[in-house]
């Protein structure tokens, strides 16, 4: 499958980068791989991490955690009632 810059851009945005920075890194990674016939996804991740390291900030640790399960989103029902968000409950409300 060809490197889809949009998917990498979205992943980098999920790590906290704005669109322009994420797209710039995704483009740089694509440019580095332009002559590669086939690469593993881990190579793409390592290249993205290299560019994030240059950029600095806290996006690199967040990018590395991207595969982990996010904590549940809690919904406050009243002043003292909180429950985890549920798509099913949301649809039926």
Structure keywords:
93 residues; mainly alpha; 5 helices; two-stranded antiparallel sheet
Summarize the structure.
The protein is mainly α and 93 residues long.
Description:
The protein has 93 residues and is mainly alpha-helical. 55% of the residues lie in helices and 6% in strands. The protein is built from five helices and two strands, in the order ααααββα. Helix 1 (5-14) packs across helix 2 (19-32) and helix 2 (19-32) packs across helix 3 (41-55). The protein is elongated. The chain starts with a helix and ends with a helix.
* Main β-sheet description: 2 strands, antiparallel
Order of helices and strands: HHHHEEH
Radius of gyration: 18 Å
Please, how many helices? 5
| Uncertain ranges | none
Silhouette: elongated
Averaged pLDDT, please?
Answer: 83
- Order of strands, widest sheet: 1-2
Percentage beta strand: 5-15%
- Share of helix, binned: 40-55%
Helix-strand makeup class: mainly alpha
- CA distance, first residue to last residue: 41 Å
Number of strands: 2
Lay out the secondary structure.
Blueprint: H1 5-14, H2 19-32, H3 41-55, H4 59-64, E1 74-76, E2 82-84, H5 87-92
Antiparallel strand pairs: 1-2
